[in-house]
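Quick one, tokens below:
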């Protein structure tokens, strides 16, 4: 059992190094050599744990998504038992925005992966679709609760997708515009006023 834990710790160390390399220089900077140097391990170690560049890139993307999921779970712990659909959707959005340095780094890395998926060289759009699909499903579930069984399903999905796209746009805007970063919470509330209360 300790041996398995050691392997997992080594994998986390390598993906952590890959995250730092990617945040500084993009996916092209993430080579076996650069990641090994950043992690303080041999190139052979990186190859042993991940085999190919694509494998360690996908593992790195998963690590960022898992961090975001943990942040989201932590946000849910702050909700009281009487939390309604709006509270839950608001918690989802705020948990996933780059409101502090760790989440800012995550947003930068996810943006880099998104850009790489457009070219399809190392990463394809299908590789990064899981988290956005989860967000749409989670928001749509809350919209169903809010609107009741007679609600138009197509409108629910479309509104959930609009919320996802607004979240992505705001997250990217916050990385380059301090005004958006300072107004992130009011902008989320405005979005929810427009979509959830319509």
């Amino acid at each position: 059992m300790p041996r398995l834990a050691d392997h997992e710790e080594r994998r986390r160390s390598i993906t952590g190094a890959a995250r730092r390399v990617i945040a500084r220089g993009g996916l092209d900077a993430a080579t076996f050599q650069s990641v090994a140097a950043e992690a303080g391990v041999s190139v052979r170690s990186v190859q042993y744990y991940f085999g190919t560049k694509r494998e360690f890139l996908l593992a790195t993307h998963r690590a960022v998504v898992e961090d975001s999921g943990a942040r989201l779970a932590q946000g849910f712990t702050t909700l009281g038992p009487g939390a309604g659909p709006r509270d839950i959707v608001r918690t989802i959005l705020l948990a996933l925005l780059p409101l502090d340095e760790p989440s800012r780094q995550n947003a930068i890395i996810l943006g880099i992966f998104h850009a790489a998926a457009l070219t399809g060289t190392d990463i394809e759009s299908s590789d990064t679709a899981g988290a956005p699909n989860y967000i749409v499903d989670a928001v749509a579930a809350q919209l169903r609760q809010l609107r009741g069984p007679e609600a138009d399903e197509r409108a629910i999905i479309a509104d959930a997708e609009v919320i996802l796209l607004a979240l992505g746009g705001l997250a990217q805007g916050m990385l380059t515009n301090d005004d958006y970063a300072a107004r992130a919470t009011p902008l989320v509330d405005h979005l929810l006023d427009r979509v959830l209360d319509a």
